[in-house]
């Protein structure tokens, strides 16, 4: 049951084409999730009239969203033509602003990356705006005939409604209005979101098969800090001005190995982030210089040493995993999701940390409450980039009238 808000009613009222719009999105999503699929199969599964499905498929083909891919096996009678999402056509530009590097990629409707480039992230907001505008400008001129939109993922609080960031702690940026600049200078639509929220959108639309049936879940992005994305009833809960999900700053533990980006010492991210793992690892060699000498220690290095059996590396990972599990237990107790999905470089050490996370989380959840599954993301090496692209792609598949 959802309350009807009169302020929003004008956009949600059922007009003569509302039913058609909903059916169109349903057919599009059948093609997205079940491809290769025939018109007859869609009609059978949706119980829509065969002629209605055919008319919608024609429209989706004309607008370049789906394509025919040849003939399927016959179950008696004429062999059906199979459908899938149109591939190879650029529709989305994703900008993944990571504290270390910024990636700009172009993808088709199925989320396949057609091209990408990255460059070091600067802490100068104006410089970054100019770089992003210039690179997107080049992409637009290269694909003149395509209707491109931009999705941007940032490691901070983003107000999606107004298209700007409120605050990015790593760079001390306030009110960065990149979407407005893209819109005014390049004439295309741009949307922005917090990186963990963008990952939540990506998991929702492009994540593992089992998540397709789940409508309430939490994503935990472990990077230099920790961000969370909360999905309620099939959509991301962003809170007032996009500030929801800042669980990275809930108090978990008292003697963190590194200070938090907020200045605190008790926060979840100062106990369980990549920085915390590195901090713990370095501290374990405090009195007798560590084997990596003066080189900068990174999480991939620690994971590789742990895989070779180095005790300090394994301990740093497992101790941080314990705190990750404690935080996750708190989220589960408070929000009762159906699943918790962890992403970030740390998932490469899943075989080393999984048992610790699961056992600590299990112990933290009251026995009679539901115990959801805790799993590693399947979005690949750069989930925040898939997140940025998903901000655009999800708009194509979601239904405005069904929200
Ligand atoms: Zn904090």
Mind explaining what this structure looks like?
The protein has 403 residues and is of the alpha/beta class. It has 3 domains: 6-85, Arc Repressor Mutant, subunit A; 92-201 and 386-402, Nucleotidyltransferase, domain 5 (2-Layer Sandwich); 209-378, 2-Layer Sandwich (Nucleotidyltransferase, domain 5), CATH 3.30.420.40. The chain contains 13 helices and 16 strands. It has helices at 6-12, 18-34, 39-46, 50-62, 125-142, 178-186, 195-206, 268-272, 274-283, 299-307, 311-335, 350-364, 383-397, and strands at 37-38, 66-71, 81-85, 92-97, 101-107, 113-120, 149-154, 157-159, 164-168, 173-174, 190-194, 217-222, 226-232, 235-237, 339-343, 373-376. The strands form 4 sheets. A 5-stranded mixed β-sheet has the order 6-5-4-7-11, sandwiched between helices. A 5-stranded mixed β-sheet has the order 14-13-12-15-16, sandwiched between helices. A hairpin with a 3-residue loop joins strand 4 and strand 5 (101-107). Helix 2 (18-34) packs across helix 4 and helix 3 packs across helix 4. The longest helix has 25 residues, at 311-335. The chain is globular. The model has no long low-confidence stretch (mean pLDDT 92). Zinc ion (ZN) binds at residues 249, 260, 262, 264, 267.
């Amino acid at each position: 049951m959802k309350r009807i808000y009169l302020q929003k009613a004008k956009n949600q009222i059922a007009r003569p084409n509302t039913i058609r719009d909903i059916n169109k999105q349903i057919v599009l999503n059948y093609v997205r999730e079940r491809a290769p699929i025939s018109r007859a199969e869609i009609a059978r599964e949706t119980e829509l009239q065969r002629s209605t499905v055919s008319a919608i498929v024609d429209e989706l083909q004309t607008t370049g969203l789906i394509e025919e891919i040849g003939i399927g096996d016959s179950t008696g009678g004429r062999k059906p033509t199979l459908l899938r999402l149109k591939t190879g056509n650029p529709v989305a530009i994703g900008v993944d602003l990571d504290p270390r590097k910024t990636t700009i990629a172009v993808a088709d409707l199925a989320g396949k990356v057609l091209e990408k480039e990255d460059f070091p992230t600067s802490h100068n907001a104006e410089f970054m705006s100019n770089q992003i505008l210039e690179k997107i400008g080049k992409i637009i001129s290269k694909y003149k005939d395509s209707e491109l939109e931009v999705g941007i993922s940032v490691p901070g609080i983003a107000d999606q409604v107004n298209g700007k960031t409120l605050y990015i702690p790593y760079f001390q940026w306030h009110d960065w209005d990149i979407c407005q600049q893209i819109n005014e200078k390049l004439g295309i639509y741009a949307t922005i979101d917090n990186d963990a929220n963008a990952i939540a959108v990506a998991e929702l639309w492009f994540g593992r098969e089992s998540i397709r049936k789940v409508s309430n879940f939490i994503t935990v992005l472990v990077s230099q800090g920790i961000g969370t994305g909360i999905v309620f009833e099939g959509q991301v809960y962003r809170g007032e001005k996009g500030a929801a999900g800042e669980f990275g700053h809930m108090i978990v533990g008292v003697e963190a190995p590194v200070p938090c980006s907020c200045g605190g010492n008790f926060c979840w991210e100062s106990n369980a982030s990549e920085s915390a793992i590195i901090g713990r690892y370095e501290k374990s060699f405090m009195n007798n210089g560590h084997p990596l000498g003066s080189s900068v220690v990174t999480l991939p290095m620690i994971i590789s040493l742990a895989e070779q059996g180095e005790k300090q590396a394994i301990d740093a990972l497992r101790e941080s995993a314990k705190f990750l599990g404690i935080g996750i237990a708190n989220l589960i107790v408070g929000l009762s999701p159906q699943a918790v999905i962890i992403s970030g470089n740390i998932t490469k050490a899943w075989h080393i940390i999984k048992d610790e996370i699961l056992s600590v989380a299990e112990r933290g959840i009251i026995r009679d409450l539901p115990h959801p599954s805790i799993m590693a993301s399947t979005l690949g090496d750069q989930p925040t980039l898939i997140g940025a692209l998903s901000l655009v792609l999800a708009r194509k598949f979601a239904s405005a009238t069904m929200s």
